[in-house]
Amino acid sequence: MTKIGVTGATGKLGTLVAQRLAAAGADLRLIARKPGKQLPIPDAEVRFAPYGDGPRFELATSGVETLLLVSAMESDLRVAEHTTAIEAAVAAGVRRIVYISFQGAAPEATFTFARDHWYTEQQIRQTELAFTVLRDNNYQIHLPALADPETGVIRGPAGDGRVAAVAHEDIADVATAVLLDDQLLHNEIRDVTGPEALNLDEVAAILSKHTDRDITYKPESIPEAYESRSKYGAPDWMVAGWVTSYQAIATGELATVSSTVEAITGHPPIAFDRYLTTHPEVLDRLRNRT
Questions:
Q1: Distance between CA atoms of 212 and 84, rounded to whole angstroms?
Q2: Which one, of 241, 209, 5, 67, lies nearest residue 138 by Cα?
Q3: 158-205 per-position pLDDT tens digit
Q4: Domains and CATH numbers, the chain
């Protein structure tokens, strides 16, 4: 039986994938950055290694044949960390990598973090290992966080563009199917999206429905977006990521709806309205105002 390694094992996506693989009886190894967080499967085989520590990551992936590489936390070192992890996995004898990327990944993508994903994809392809790249759209869980909890206003330079946000559960279903079948999406790159592309006025209307308050969208210019976020004191690369995530919506880079979820899993992807019905906790910050 193929041993499957799941990185990001204590994160939301890694947890969902690990649980699905365990239920399918897979030979599983969980890989997390460090101890301390609850593991999704208490009795599972586990190793701890950050992406940027090549020797430890090589040890963590030794004996793994198929590796789910969930992208590292956003940072100015993310590409370097990914490169170290990929090189270590190759040295450990990994034969296939399934990488969680981002829709629109390209060297000149509007969303600056999507550029990181493109460079990581190139690193994987240069290894000549078998691969599958799953380019996820924005996560549906993040859409409520766009609204200010005090004012209920979503502000950003998204214009009237659209975003085909996807639920973690759908990504996990696709990733699990691919991890269990080494011929499924063999050496392919696929977008993974929700069933519809919404503009931010429509996102606001759905949030209003589920929170029983008035959520609105107010477009910003790009200079206004940088100015309004300057108060947080975040590093420049992070602020650029925040602002360009909206700009990528404006340009249409996140508007394409893919058929991947239904084609691979046999069920349609979850719509944002239904997601909020089944995950009401993601609306707590908009409901619990003091």
A1: 47
A2: 241
A3: 999 999 999 999 999 999 999 999 999 999 999 999 999 999 999 999
A4: 3-136+167-192 (3.40.50.720)
